[in-house]
Design the sequence.
């Protein structure tokens, strides 16, 4: 097996080596497969490795590249897909026992896009059951077991893209695809010390992805840098007539070139003063240091405040109602009792009770807060704060009773469909990663990517990784 | 970091939020009769640390619990029923706050999320038109 560093190279660096034929996609895939087979079970990172598919794709990529047909920066790059994305002929479990044997006969659009650029799927990443759509109390809420954080295996990766976070931090793939309805890309990225992009709602097709709350579900990349996220996002973004939630053709596609000059568009940053009630001391220190970096290297930084209102409540109701509808059959049949988590076994019954009038009131509030946030982005290009107020939590923690704090930015950002990026910005005294979050105006994914790139041009936190032996 | 309104939900991410949200259900009288008997068969003590609710909200919580037990009671253990009581009770304050937010009749619900994108909100700035050459002063 090669030295550990190769497993933590960015997509951009791997692509250079592959394009110049200094690195074989087949060798790279085999290295990652070997490492994933060895270390994946330690972290419960994968739902399933797919070595046959991966090696077939890698061989095809290598053949094409040898013939001079290089498709671009993801050609021959190994990745993991969250196990709620349909892959033709392979089990897609949604992380939940009732769907353990589910097999689709088609690919999700995201998988098709990645196939078309020649990326190599190593396997399906583990996840929280039903992406947490029925609620969960413990990290064990997964068919694959609790995802252990490679920085400290006594800690959790966060969810619901829990396996995607573990895979990236442990160097088991070059990138991963996660999804977020509320927090499921940003939180695992922060807890695992990787870079995650939650795109604007509708930029990436959900066709073939498990529906949780269809008006809030989003798919995005988790990778080693903002630049990598941009490259992956460029491959998967775009209108899809099979997902009526996608934005129109002229607003869907995303093009990216690393030659885009960072100073071309000076970013005005709003530093949020009311995003979190408080930060844990271990998190506060790196975030304060990150604030100094932002002040030094961004064109302007001023305090900003989120609008006050029951936006989180509105988001909670939207998720509850839509998830109860998405999993109606599971709830009504009683098969929710097969879920691992005690909360997941019963919460659907409560969520089913919402009235249409309350749901519509929540949607009215969504419209109101969308306009308020759009006004905020007349002043700022991005707003910034800690990605999470705490570092990775112990695996045994009861999330329901021991981890309680408001998350207005998560609520607002997700009900408004705003793009966000979490970038590593330091470590706690216990060597757990801390994330910084940038959020932008709907459709301005470029701004959050540019913010992440700018931050990473002046820091190296995203290059740190745990030692895996 | 400043303080967010204390009214905000004390929960971290949607996964758990999803568990705490619920609302009143309209019950037909016959349903109510059945559900009352179902609920009466259970210990009705208040969950520990239950939020303070108005009598109306308390009644709403009870009707919600009754509806759940009437429909699903036979498949739930006593522990699960107690959990559902707690969840339904904790779900009420967020619901009350949501309803208390003043909206107008004309406020449109975002029936299917359409992010407010820059180009929809405002027309794109037009590229500056090239300046015509200055006319000769004596023409």
Sequence:
């Amino acid at each position: 097996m090669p030295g550990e560093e190769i497993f933590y190279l960015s997509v951009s660096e791997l692509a250079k080596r592959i394009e110049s034929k200094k690195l074989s996609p087949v060798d790279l895939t085999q290295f990652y497969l070997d490492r994933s087979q060895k270390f994946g079970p330690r972290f419960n990172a994968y739902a399933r490795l797919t070595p046959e598919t991966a090696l077939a794709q890698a061989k095809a990529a290598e053949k094409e590249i040898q013939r001079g047909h290089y498709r671009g920066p993801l050609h021959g790059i190994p990745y993991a897909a969250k196990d709620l994305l349909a892959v033709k002929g392979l089990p897609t479990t949604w992380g939940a026992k009732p769907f353990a044997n589910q097999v689709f006969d088609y690919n999700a659009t995201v998988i098709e896009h990645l196939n078309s650029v020649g990326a190599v799927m190593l396997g399906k990443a583990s996840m929280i059951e039903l992406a947490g759509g029925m609620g969960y109390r413990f990290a064990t809420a997964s068919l694959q077991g609790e995802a252990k954080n490679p920085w400290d295996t006594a800690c959790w990766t966060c969810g619901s893209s829990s396996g995607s976070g573990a895979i990236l931090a442990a160097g088991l793939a070059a990138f991963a695809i996660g999804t977020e309805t509320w927090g499921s890309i940003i939180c695992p990225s922060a807890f695992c010390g990787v870079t995650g992009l939650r795109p604007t709602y509708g930029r990436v097709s959900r066709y073939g992805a498990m529906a949780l709350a269809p008006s809030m579900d989003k798919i995005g990349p988790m990778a080693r840098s903002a630049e990598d996220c941009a490259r992956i996002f460029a491959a998967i973004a775009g209108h899809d007539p099979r997902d009526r939630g996608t934005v129109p053709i002229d607003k869907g596609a995303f093009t990216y070139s690393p030659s885009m000059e960072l100073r071309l568009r000076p970013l005005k940053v709003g530093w949020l003063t009311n995003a979190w009630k408080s930060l844990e001391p271990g998190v506060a220190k790196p975030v304060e240091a990150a604030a100094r970096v932002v002040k030094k290297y961004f064109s302007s930084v001023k305090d900003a405040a989120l609008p006050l209102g029951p936006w989180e409540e509105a988001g909670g109701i939207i998720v509850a109602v839509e998830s109860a509808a998405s999993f109606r059959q599971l709830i009504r049949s009683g098969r929710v009792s097969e879920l691992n988590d005690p909360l997941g076994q019963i919460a659907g019954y409560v969520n089913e009770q919402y009235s249409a009038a309350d749901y519509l009131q929540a949607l009215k509030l969504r419209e109101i807060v969308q306009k308020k946030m759009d006004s905020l982005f007349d002043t700022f290009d991005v707003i910034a704060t800690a990605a999470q107020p705490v570092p990775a939590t112990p695996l045994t923690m009861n999330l329901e009773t021991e981890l309680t704090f408001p998350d207005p930015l998560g609520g607002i950002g997700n009900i408004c469909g705003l793009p966000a990026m979490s970038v590593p910005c330091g470590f706690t005294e216990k060597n757990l990663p801390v994330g910084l979050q940038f959020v932008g105006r709907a459709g301005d994914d470029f701004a959050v990517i540019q913010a992440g790139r700018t931050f990473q041009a002046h820091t190296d936190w995203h290059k740190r990784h745990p030692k895996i032996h | 970091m400043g303080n967010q309104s204390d009214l905000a939900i004390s929960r971290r991410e949607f996964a758990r939020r999803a568990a705490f949200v619920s609302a009143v259900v309209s019950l037909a009288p016959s349903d109510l009769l059945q559900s009352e008997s179902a609920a009466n068969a259970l210990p009705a003590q208040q969950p520990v640390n239950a939020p303070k609710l108005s009598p109306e909200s308390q009644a709403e919580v009870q009707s919600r619990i009754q509806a759940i037990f009437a429909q699903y009671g036979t498949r739930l253990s006593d522990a699960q029923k107690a959990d559902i009581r707690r969840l339904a009770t904790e779900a009420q304050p967020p619901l009350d706050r949501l309803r208390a937010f003043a909206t107008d009749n004309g406020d449109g619900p975002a029936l299917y999320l359409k992010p407010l994108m820059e180009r929809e909100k405002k027309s794109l700035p037009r590229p500056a038109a090239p300046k015509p050459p200055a006319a000769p002063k004596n023409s």
